């Protein structure tokens, strides 16, 4: 039955398609292969989510070797939701990428671009679905190594510097993760995540396990750009090709947040992570610092990609803030924001990709009067910006509402106020763009012959914008899945 093979198809389809793109050495054919592979993975993710919600967790044992002896793929509500996010963003982004990549990347490198893109997609999906700790590390490295190369393909020479900076910090994070996994293996003799969760309570009081927890937390913190470990992210998003920036902003940090959730709640457990170790207060302070400092820095950026990059650091702060609550409501907010931020930030970076396509720059000064030259593009940016702020009837409001509820349940009123303060700061930097595009007294000189972006760019962008509004009104799926996943995570750890 093909239904039983869905977990392995989720990873093998893009993995097998990657070398095919390299062999073809034809940009158009490579794009078509990538598009088909992305839509197959999206359809697979939808079917997996439906199965998990209907039947409960799914397990796939490679070679019929039962866990923990063999490698296991395990699908539960939380990672099924993340699989849907990653594959769905990829499926929507690929039609956008065809024109955007052709404009920003030399034709002889286009097939290489799609090869690297598929490897990055494979790594992100593999990290999400695997039930084996060392396998998780391998997939992390597959996605990271391909990401370094994707960023380096940017047209600006500073893309090389950004890629190298990410390489150094990403390697440090990977080393920390590997050390943490090695220490856990030394104490338990297993790499299977479910088996780790069963064996760790017996050795939880040892310094080795505490050290492993610290190494994993810092390593994953680097991968998810948790303040102050975020220094690689602004340059990476700024100088990467537009399609790469949109894909990474919508998926990469979300997968890393999921990994943090998986280790903290499913492997170590609430009792160890939040009682024996002071994780709650550490995450709370770092999350608040991320929201406030990154939002303030975003206000002063002239490059809009860099502005959205710092905004992403702040949004990661919101996700981590929900984790720090260690409650069902807090986790629901974090998991919701994984989905919602993917929609809003993917749409915003794709809107900037439309601007880049026509202007060749995304600097604020170049956008004076652009709202009348590219009305559909700038309207998409405005709606995406409203969602980022958290205006009602958008997905951003739903996430922040649950964060405020979680803070109030804990009795942390100052934290709830700081969440609202972060939204007010977002109003300032989004308003700077709106002011330049619609209310500037003079039009930039480079807009004389500018016209609206082509439909191949606008349609995918507006699909994500429509999703921002739709899931802000109808929250049946998102809140339902997020709450069920949160209850399972907390239940597993108790």
What is shown here, in short?
The chain has 494 residues and is mainly alpha-helical. Helices cover 78% and strands 2% of the residues. Helix 3 runs parallel beside helix 14, helix 13 packs parallel to helix 17 and helix 14 packs across helix 20.
Q: Overview of this structure, please?
A:
It is a single chain. The chain is an all-alpha fold. The protein contains 20 helices and two strands. A two-stranded antiparallel sheet has the order 1-2.
Q: Give the fraction of residues assigned to helices.
A: over 70%
pLDDT averaged over residues:
87
Radius of gyration: 21 Å
Uncertain runs are none
Fraction in beta strands: under 5%
What is the distance, rounded to the nearest whole angstrom, between the alpha carbons of the first and last residues?
35 Å
Number of strands: 2
Query: Which sequence of strands runs across the widest sheet?
Result: 1-2
Shape: globular
Number of helices: 20
Keyword list:
20 helices, 2 strands, mainly alpha, single chain, 78% helix, 494 residues
């Amino acid at each position: 039955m093909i239904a039983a093979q869905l977990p392995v198809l989720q990873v093998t389809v893009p993995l097998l398609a990657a070398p095919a793109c390299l062999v073809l050495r034809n940009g158009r054919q490579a794009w078509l292969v990538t598009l088909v592979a992305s839509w197959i993975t999206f359809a697979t993710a939808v079917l997996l989510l439906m199965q998990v919600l209907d039947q409960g967790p799914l397990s796939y044992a490679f070679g019929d070797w039962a866990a923990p002896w063999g490698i296991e793929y395990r699908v539960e509500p939380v990672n099924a939701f993340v699989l849907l996010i990653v594959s769905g963003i990829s499926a929507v982004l690929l039609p956008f990428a065809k024109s955007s990549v052709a404009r920003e990347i030399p034709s002889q490198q286009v097939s290489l671009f799609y090869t690297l893109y598929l490897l990055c997609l494979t790594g992100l999906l593999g990290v999400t679905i695997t039930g084996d700790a060392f396998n998780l590390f391998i997939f992390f490295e597959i996605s990271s190594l391909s990401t370094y190369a994707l960023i380096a393909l940017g047209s600006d020479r500073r893309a090389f510097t950004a890629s190298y900076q990410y390489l150094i910090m990403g390697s440090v994070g990977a080393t920390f993760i590997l050390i943490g996994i090695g220490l856990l293996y030394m104490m338990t003799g297993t790499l299977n995540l479910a088996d780790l969760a069963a064996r760790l309570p017996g050795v939880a009081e040892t310094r080795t396990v505490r050290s492993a927890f610290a190494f994993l937390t810092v390593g994953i913190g680097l991968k998810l750009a948790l303040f102050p470990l975020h220094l690689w992210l602004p340059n990476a998003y700024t100088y990467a090709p537009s399609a790469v920036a949109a894909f990474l902003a919508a998926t990469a940090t979300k997968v890393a947040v999921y990994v943090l959730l998986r280790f903290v709640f499913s492997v170590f457990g609430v009792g160890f992570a939040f009682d024996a170790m002071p994780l709650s207060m550490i995450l709370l302070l770092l999350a608040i610092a991320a929201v406030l400092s990154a939002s303030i820095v975003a206000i002063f950026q002239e490059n809009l990609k860099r502005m959205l990059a710092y905004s992403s650091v702040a949004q990661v702060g919101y996700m981590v803030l929900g984790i720090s609550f260690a409650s069902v409501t807090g986790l629901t907010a974090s998991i919701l924001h994984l989905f919602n931020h993917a929609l809003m930030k993917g749409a915003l970076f794709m809107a900037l990709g439309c601007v880049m396509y026509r202007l060749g720059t995304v600097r604020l000064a170049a956008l004076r009067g652009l709202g009348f030259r590219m009305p559909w593009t700038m309207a998409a940016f405005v709606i995406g910006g409203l969602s980022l702020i958290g205006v009602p009837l958008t997905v951003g409001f739903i996430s922040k509402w649950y964060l405020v509820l979680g803070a109030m349940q804990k009795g942390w009123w100052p934290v709830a106020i700081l969440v609202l303060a972060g939204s007010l700061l977002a109003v300032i930097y989004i308003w700077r763009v709106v002011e330049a595009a619609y209310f500037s007294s003079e039009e930039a000189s480079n807009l004389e012959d500018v016209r609206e972006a082509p439909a191949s760019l606008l349609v995918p962008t507006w699909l994500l914008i429509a999703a921002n509004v739709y899931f802000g009104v109808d929250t049946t799926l998102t809140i339902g899945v997020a709450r069920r996943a949160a209850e399972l995570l907390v239940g597993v750890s108790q």
